[in-house]
Write a structure and sequence with these properties.
Oligomer: single chain
Order of helices and strands: HHEHEHEEHEHEE
Structural class: alpha/beta
Distance between the termini: 29 Å
CATH class: Alpha Beta
Strand order of the largest sheet: 3-2-1-4-5-7-6
Length: 198
């Protein structure tokens, strides 16, 4: 998908409250923070309005969020100011991340991997590999194939995750998880993948 098309699509979604913007961290990621599994430097790709970045910053991490939507980044910056939280937000495409001066220890991804088509997945995975230190962790929440068809993004199988991260990565775990949404009480059946850069 073209950069402009993707940016316009998500800017339109952020004109209102998207289904995934629940106003708090997803429980699966909140548990990672509570267990001390976030590293010193954390990047949230497709950060939206910033809840996971703010969570990481409040846990004492050097936290950065990136999103392709100008509207999402502005809302995230406003939240950080309103909460008095030190966190950075950048406008950018997660498929083309620039190498940071110091690589990240952890990358969080809540619902970004599953919006990419087959063509977009390899550049995204390469981009992650570029910014994450060897031994660093990528934690990804995505819709699983156990979620019935209908609304929302494509469903992702464990086999697809293994195929996408076959080179330069070690898959530590792929576990059933939930993504909470605003449009229904029942959470979405999802995967929490814990993947280490080798």
């Amino acid at each position: 998908m073209e950069d402009r098309d993707l940016a316009a699509r998500f800017d339109a979604v952020y004109a209102t409250t998207p289904p995934w913007d629940i106003g708090r961290p997803q429980p699966a990621f909140a548990a990672l923070a509570a267990e001390g599994r976030l590293g010193a430097r954390v990047l949230d790709v497709g950060c939206g309005t910033g809840e996971h970045v703010l969570m990481a910053a409040q846990a004492g991490c050097d936290a950065v969020g990136i999103d392709i939507s100008t509207s999402a980044v502005r809302q995230a910056e406003a939240k950080a100011r309103g909460r008095g939280t030190r966190a950075r937000f950048e406008l950018g495409d997660a498929r083309a991340l620039a190498s940071p001066g110091e690589p990240f220890d952890t990358v969080l991804d809540c619902g970004l991997f599953h919006v990419f088509d087959d063509e977009d997945r390899p550049p995204f995975v390469e981009s992650l590999h570029r910014v994450l230190r060897p031994g660093g962790d990528y934690f990804m929440l995505c819709f699983s194939e156990d979620e019935p068809p209908g609304w929302g993004p494509r469903r992702v199988t464990q086999a697809e995750i293994h195929a996408a991260f076959a080179r330069g990565w070690a898959i530590e775990a792929i576990e059933p998880a939930e993504i909470h949404v605003t449009i229904r009480a029942e959470p979405v059946r999802s995967w929490l993948a814990s993947i280490r850069r080798t």
